[in-house]
Design goal:
Layout (H helix, E strand, L loop, with lengths): L8 H15 L14 H14 L3 H9 L15 H11 L2 H14 L4 H4 L1 H4 L6 H10 L5 H30 L4 E4 L10 H7 L4 E2 L4 E2 L7 E2 L8 E8 L5 H15 L4 E8 L3 E3 L7 H7 L8 H11 L6 E6 L8 H13 L3 E8 L9 H9 L3 E5 L1 H13 L1
Parallel strand pairs: 5-6, 5-8, 8-9, 9-10
Antiparallel strand pairs: 1-4, 2-3, 6-7
Protein name: VWA domain containing CoxE-like protein
Length: about 375
């Protein structure tokens, strides 16, 4: 049976239950005094287990008439129970959001440090970031289980980016004309532009006097050096992950020599581990101060041919060392012909959070400042190499 609007009573009830879950206990009136169904009650308990620890949320519940109460009794759910429940009750996208909030917003470390939890959890980027932040808390057995998360997420990232890199570097038609006239090399855009004068409106036809073709050569990669310096402070964890993956994908390209340097107040050359990004990430020590100038000075020593070097500094640019030394080091690199990138983020979202004043000073001496996804960085490298 459906009502006049074409909905069933069951569909109406499910819609009301969703509103009740959104509004919390204060929205109980939505159900006209009836309780939640079994599935919705489970979802409500799972949401309450996580977000109930939010003091602001708790205060809102009290103001809105919610019936939340404290107590000295044991928690209804353990972390293991909670994970089992959310995987049973919610879609994948919601599960990943809940797990991300658990480890990043509420710092529930046992999500990635408890063996019983690690055996159940599905790998995702939020959990990888959590593993890297908390691996110093893990004993060898727990770290072995956590490695599964690192391997699974890194493998997916490498496969995805490797495809982008292959598309950028291989089989791409150069933007140069060719006299080799075959259909697969036909440059239709240039041909149309060149023959617009021969368009006959009455016939609605374009007559071609001259056809143009691409050169079918691959991009020429000739001895380019890519030096990636990545800030390993805790706020840059996503960029550290993607820098490791990007370096691994660039490593095997002909004519591209890749270096990966991690830094805080110390500088660690990780180039020897680039081919194994999983092992590399497990060696990274997140946290500590930041001395970008020191890292730039180290990286400058690696430059072999300045005019064939891309020097990327991945940092939030909150410098703990000497800002004047940093600006001076970047200026010297630019003046010798090195292409310097200052990236405030290197990840899939490329949402930057950085010291804009220092970034502007670096831009003023010739660095290109911004944020990139790994694919965009690969495109930049390819354009430089092909140009």
């Amino acid at each position: 049976m459906t009502d006049g609007a074409g909905t069933t009573p069951e569909a109406d009830r499910l819609a009301l239950e969703r509103w009740r879950l959104v509004l919390g206990a204060a929205g109980s009136a939505c159900l006209g005094g009836q309780g939640l169904g079994e599935s919705a009650a489970g979802q409500d308990a799972a949401l309450d287990w996580l977000y109930g620890r939010d003091e602001e949320w708790d205060q809102r519940e009290v103001r809105r008439g919610g019936d939340r109460q404290g107590g000295a009794g044991p928690s209804v759910l353990t972390t293991v129970d909670w994970l089992d429940n959310i995987h049973r009750l919610f879609p994948k996208e919601t599960i990943e959001r809940l797990e991300r909030d658990a480890v990043e917003r509420y710092e529930i470390h046992d999500v990635v440090t408890d063996p019983a939890v690690l055996e159940r959890v599905e790998p995702n980027p939020a959990l990888l970031r959590a593993v890297l932040r908390t691996k110093h808390l893990m004993n060898p057995e727990v770290l072995r289980l956590a490695r599964r998360i690192v391997e699974a997420v890194v493998r997916e990232l490498v496969e995805r980016l490797a495809t982008e890199v292959r598309q950028v570097f291989h089989g791409t038609r150069a933007r140069r004309p060719s006299q080799f006239r075959v259909a697969r090399n036909f440059d239709f855009r240039r041909t149309i532009r060149a023959n617009l004068g021969h368009y006959r409106p009455d016939e609605r036809r374009l007559y071609l006097e001259t056809a143009h073709f691409f050169s079918r050569t691959r991009r020429h990669i000739d001895q380019w050096q890519v030096i990636l310096l990545v800030d390993q402070s805790g706020s840059m964890v996503s960029s550290v992950i993607h820098a490791a993956v990007t370096a691994a994908c660039l490593w095997g390209l002909p004519g591209v020599k890749t270096h990966l340097i991690a830094f805080d107040t110390e500088v660690v050359d990780l180039t020897s581990d680039v081919t194994d990004p999983v092992e590399l990430l497990l060696k990274v020590q997140l946290g500590g101060g930041t001395d970008i100038a020191r890292a730039v000075a180290y990286g400058a020593q690696l430059v072999e041919n300045p005019r064939r070097t891309i020097f990327a500094v991945i940092s939030d640019f909150y410098e703990g060392g000497s800002e004047s030394a940093l600006v001076r080091g970047v200026r010297q690199l630019v003046e010798q012909g090195t292409r310097v990138l200052g990236l405030a983020a290197l990840d899939e979202e490329a949402n930057p959070d950085f010291d804009r004043e220092l970034a502007q000073r670096l831009a003023d001496v010739g660095a290109r400042m911004g944020a990139m996804t790994p694919g965009q960085l690969a495109e930049f490298v390819a354009e430089c190499a092909a140009g």
